[in-house]
Design goal:
The chain is α+β, with helices and mostly antiparallel strands and about 180 residues long. It is about 30% helix and about 30% strand. It is built from five helices and six strands, in the order H-E-H-H-E-E-E-E-E-H-H.
């Protein structure tokens, strides 16, 4: 089940925080609860992705994106991701999520999120995201105009661009091997 109470808490907390520049970092604080655990008594990898949603929601609230989405009747979607899990998140452990945009193209936004336990990075995720309307993907230039920003994308970190380039070599649709 989606953690709706946590989602509401994050939106309310983000509303009380100062507005954030579209390239700023949003920090949110969380705890690993028993319902987040898997068989190995650590936060389930799927739950980690759900908790990262909460960090992106706080970021979207603070940069004005949620308001622009409602006003323009736009949607928001994830179009790709890559996640590194490096440290277990145990029951009742407090952690923080740092969420930030690292660049954009003519179609997509690229977001980095990290989960920190103290000074140790437990998880790092890179997302390709898009804003959509009834006609498909909305150009990020239009999205930024809706939140009052007119700025070109910063140069993406080399590892982000390498991920984009590698993913562009991936065939789509994938080959159907006949087993389905």
């Amino acid at each position: 089940m989606y953690p709706m109470v946590r989602l509401i808490k994050e939106v309310v907390k983000a509303r009380r925080m100062p507005p954030l520049h579209a390239l700023g970092s949003h920090v949110s604080h969380h705890r690993c609860w028993p319902q987040d655990l898997d068989y190995f008594m650590e936060m389930n990898n799927g739950r980690i992705l759900t908790i990262l949603d909460l960090g992106r929601t706080g970021l979207a609230q603070r940069v004005g994106l949620l308001t622009a989405l409602r006003k323009n009747r736009w949607g928001l979607t994830i179009a790709g991701s890559s996640v590194r899990y490096r440290k277990r998140i145990r029951p009742f452990v407090k952690f923080r999520i740092v969420s930030k945009a690292v660049g954009w193209s003519e179609r997509f936004f690229y977001l980095e999120q990290t989960i920190w336990i103290g000074e140790d990075c437990a998880v790092q995720a890179l997302y390709r995201s898009a804003v959509t309307d009834k006609n498909g993907i909305v150009n990020p230039v239009h999205v930024f105009a809706a939140i009052g920003m007119d700025q070109p994308s910063p140069e993406k970190p080399a590892w982000v661009q390498a991920w984009i380039d590698a993913d562009n070599t991936r065939p789509w649709p994938p080959a159907n091997d006949g087993t389905s």
